[in-house]
Design goal:
This protein has 180 residues and is α/β, with parallel strands linked by helices. It has a single domain, classed as Flavodoxin domain (Rossmann fold, 3-Layer(aba) Sandwich). The chain is 42% helix and 22% strand. It has 7 helices and 9 strands. A 5-stranded parallel sheet has the order 2-1-3-6-7, sandwiched between helices. Strand 6, helix 5 and strand 7 form a beta-alpha-beta unit. The longest helix is centred in the C-terminal third of the chain and has 19 residues. It is globular, with a radius of gyration of 16 Å. The relative contact order is 0.17.
């Protein structure tokens, strides 16, 4: 049984990406799943002067420990102006300073969603390209465009049948990858 860590790269209290990773966690049976909020690991804005003067924040070490204890991760990224949020970028900056290969040996399912028609595709693409630099093996990715039209929060499901079938396929492929 693998330990899978779920998180969203958003600091919004109403994050639709957090709702998406929470939904994904319900579709992975027979594994130890844990959903966290990055806001529980608050980090200051990264800067080399701050790092030199104060070292690594305790919250950073706690977050890194969660990642190290996991076998795989499911990460959903939000998008701000065609890129990942400054919040998530800051988290990646801190983690990579503590340990450049903080995702070494971790299989990752990347997801994204937004209310736009592209479903945060630019942020997803950026993240797919950058996480391998930190050792990640991105084995699957999935995006839900037009979140409010394609996801029912009341029913906690993807309402677009084609998207739901694609999501299930991606989840099954991800689970297969972490089991081999």
């Amino acid at each position: 049984m693998s330990k899978i860590l779920f998180l969203a790269g958003s600091n919004s209290s109403t994050s639709i990406n957090h709702k998406l990773v929470s939904f994904a966690a319900t579709h992975i049976p027979n594994h130890n799943t844990e959903i966290i909020k990055l806001t529980d690991y608050d980090l200051p804005m990264f800067g080399v002067d701050l790092e030199r003067e104060k070292g690594y924040p305790v919250n950073l070490k706690m977050l890194n420990n969660k990642i190290q204890e996991s076998d795989a991760l499911v990460i959903s990224v939000n998008e701000h102006n065609g890129n990942i949020s400054a919040y998530f970028k800051n988290t990646l900056d801190w983690l990579s300073r503590l340990d450049r290969k903080f995702l070494e040996g971790k299989k990752v399912l990347l997801m994204s969603t937004s209310n736009g028609k592209r479903g945060a595709a630019s942020a997803l693409e950026y993240t797919k390209n950058v996480l391998p630099r930190f050792g990640a093996n991105v084995v699957e990715s999935f995006s839900i465009p037009s979140y409010s039209e394609n996801f029912s929060e009341q029913k906690n499901t993807i309402t677009n049948e084609i998207l739901l079938l694609g999501f299930i396929d991606v989840i099954q492929n991800f689970v297969h990858q972490i089991e081999i």
